[in-house]
Amino acid sequence: MKKIMTMALLALFTLGAQAQDSAEKNKPVFTTIKEHKITSIKDQNRSGTCWAYSTLSFFESEILKATGKTYDLCEMFVANKDYMERAVFNVRMHGDSQFSQGGAAEDVLDIIKHYGICPENAMPLPGTPQGDSLANFNEFFSVMEPYVAAVAKNKASKISNQWKKGLQGILDAYLGECPENFTYEGKKYTPLSFAASLGVNWDDYVSITSYTHHPFYTKFPVEVQDNWRGGLSYNVPMDEMMQIIDYALDKGYTIAWGGDVSEDGFTRKGLGIAYDTKKVQSLSGSDAARWLRLSRSEKTEKFDSLGVNAPEIVPTQEMRQERYDNWELTDDHGMHIFGLAKDQNGKEYYMVKNSWGEYGDYKGVWYMTKAFVAYNTMDFMINKNAIPKDIRKKLGI
Questions:
Q1: How far apart are CA 114 and CA 202, in angstroms?
Q2: What are phi and psi of 153, to 5 degrees?
Q3: DSSP reduced 3-state for 31
Q4: What is the pLDDT of residues 222-250, one digit of tens each?
């Protein structure tokens, strides 16, 4: 028995070593094709504010492109204003809308247009009002959600506006008060005058999506809960959606991307790959029944061992629509596409700035294949001047 156990352990060690060797051999080696300027990597920490971090990062790159100046814009200013507006909407709907931490790129643009923006140092740094070093919304939302629900579900025939003062107190306590005016580099501003001074036209930004339940080349509000404002997106075929991203990067623009990162192919090491699971099963020697019995970590190990040689699906318009309709394709994360690279096999990947700090193999940057982006994009915000002229003409922009 002892001999059998020794042999079994040796076999396991050998298989593990082989898997590790395979993973190292297949690890991607990236060559940058295009890379546009971005600001520093941020960390949203325990807050559902990827929408604010990714969209402000996008606008910071837009400002860099237009003026050459680097700014650090304030996510908590946007969150403070946005959560109040979302609460007002929720109360108007008697609670029949989602009140949550998540949001959309449209939220950031709308807040800037109506209230302006301030630099990061014009407000307390994220987390500091409650004694943390980074944003932590756990206690904050456990206080705020029932407060809003109590107002929205109130049985009174008429409510006062006093609840807004109470909610503003909660927002200011956890996020910091939004300044009415401040000094930046020796000059006095209001949030609106500061936004106007940044050198970009806030009317230049549009949202793009691709679904078949609405006509192409029209606008519609993507039907997800975080799009509570009903922001409109231009609807284009999937191939043109991808053409817009490539054209934008070629012309020096970046993209505020929203989509699904819950797939196995979005790894914590910094990759986004649209795995063809059936082919991976075959390559790993697993039939379907055995594959389904594997734990998530065991599946991840097999995916990682294939690395750049992992087979990918070929996304289609029909796949996107089916996954959207059956809830597989969600809008669970926002990030910032800023470049293009290729691996040692010549496959192209988008370079994407995340907001999880300097996490993963690439210090806060993810490399997502074109197939992954085509398969998992919900929508994205872009400068309208970054759209090819023939597509702009179809859209009437």
A1: 11
A2: -100, 10
A3: strand
A4: 999 999 999 999 999 999 999 999 999 99
User: Do the beta carbons of residue 298 and residue 311 sit within 8 Å?
Assistant: no
Q: Residue 326 gets which letter from DSSP?
A: T
Q: What is the value of pTM for the model shown?
A: 0.93
User: Model confidence over 168-209: pLDDT tens digits?
Assistant: 999 999 999 999 999 999 999 999 999 999 999 999 999 999
Provide the 3-class DSSP secondary structure of residue 168.
helix
3-state SS record for 185-237: CCEEECHHHHHHCCCCCCCCEEEEECCCCCCCCCEEECCCCCCCCCCEEEECC
Structural contact between residues 276 and 306, judged by C-beta atoms closer than 8 angstroms: no
Other CB atoms within 10 Å distance of the CB of residue 258: 31
Rounded distance between C-alpha atoms, residue 28 and residue 135, angstroms = 33
Strand partners, 206: 382
Helix axes 138-152, 162-175, angle to 10 degrees: 170
Cα Rg of the chain, angstroms: 23
3-state secondary structure of 49: coil
